[in-house]
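To illustrate the input format used throughout this study, we show a single complete record. The first block contains the structure-token representation of the backbone; no residue identities are included at this stage. The design step must infer an amino acid for every position from geometry alone.
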């Protein structure tokens, strides 16, 4: 059975009433939901409702109840204060973006020291209904808050795999490891799409992003092993001077590692950045990884 995170289903909200004063209002809440013909389940001091119900409840509770003595969560995520409920409700547009697959793939070249194109990195961008662009930080923040991170990440991966058939070059594809709960279930569709397109697995490099948010390194290693055993390569993104990142390099042994853009741009004029870049290069040689520099935009930095 697939997890709910894999599908764009209607969200379920649990609202906990922590004070006795708020709990005395439960009969009135039940009557309110009945009049509105909305679904509501009550278990002790917890209320369970769909998104429309949560929207109506927020209107009802404001001015009638103590919001500071309530908390909510979505799909068994962490508890959040009621003051954040409205911001979750305002992200409903994200569901339509995913369902309608309003995604565009772009690519940027990865070149060798001889300036020959070695590979492409595929970038995903999203559009609103009117065609205007949605910034990545906006849509991924909404997905994280809404519990849609896996669904969005999956859409990006599947679209990028299909796009790689056009590129016909080694393709770097970003993915967020914290969105994947089980490699066997979550990554099966990616493997299937590559097989459908008759693309050799060695053409793909799956790039781990948001490295600083990876708390369970063993889980990450399981994901990367799953890819590796099927012929895919993997890269570690945004490598810098932090201890946690360097320690992770030793543990996961990536095939490629990318120097963070903040240490690349201006490296020709900044001695501190040069030292970090040199340490990065030495680390790559130590673990047998191919080193990449991200975001070079000047001839001086390239040299």
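Output of the design step:
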């Amino acid at each position: 059975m697939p997890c709910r995170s894999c599908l764009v289903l209607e969200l379920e909200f649990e609202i906990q009433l922590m004070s006795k004063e708020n709990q005395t209002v439960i009969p009135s809440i039940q009557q309110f939901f009945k009049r509105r013909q909305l679904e509501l389940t009550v278990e002790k001091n917890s209320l369970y409702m769909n998104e429309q119900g949560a929207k109506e409840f927020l209107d009802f509770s404001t001015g009638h109840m103590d919001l500071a003595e309530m908390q909510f969560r979505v799909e068994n995520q962490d508890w959040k204060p009621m003051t954040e409920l409205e911001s979750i409700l305002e992200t409903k547009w994200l569901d339509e973006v995913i369902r309608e697959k309003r995604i565009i793939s772009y690519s940027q070249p990865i070149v060798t020291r001889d300036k020959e194109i070695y590979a492409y990195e595929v970038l995903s961008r999203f559009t609103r209904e009117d065609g205007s662009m949605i910034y990545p930080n906006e849509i991924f923040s909404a997905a994280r808050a809404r519990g849609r991170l896996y669904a969005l990440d999956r859409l990006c991966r599947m679209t990028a795999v299909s796009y790689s058939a056009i590129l016909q070059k080694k393709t770097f594809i970003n993915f967020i490891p914290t969105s994947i709960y089980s490699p066997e279930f979550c990554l099966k569709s990616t493997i299937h799409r590559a097989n459908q397109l008759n693309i050799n697995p060695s053409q793909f490099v799956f790039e781990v992003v948001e490295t600083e948010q990876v708390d369970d390194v063993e889980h990450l290693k399981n994901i990367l092993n799953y890819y590796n055993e099927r012929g895919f390569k993997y890269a570690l993104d945004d490598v810098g001077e932090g201890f946690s990142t360097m320690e992770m390099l030793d543990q996961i042994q990536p095939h490629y590692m990318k120097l963070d853009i903040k240490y690349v741009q201006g490296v020709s004029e900044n001695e501190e950045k040069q030292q970090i870049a040199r340490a990065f290069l030495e680390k790559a040689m130590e673990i047998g990884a191919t080193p990449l520099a991200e975001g070079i935009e000047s001839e001086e930095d390239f040299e």
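Structural context for interpreting the output: The chain has two domains: 4-89, 93-302. The domain at 4-89 is CATH 3.30.70 (Alpha-Beta Plaits).
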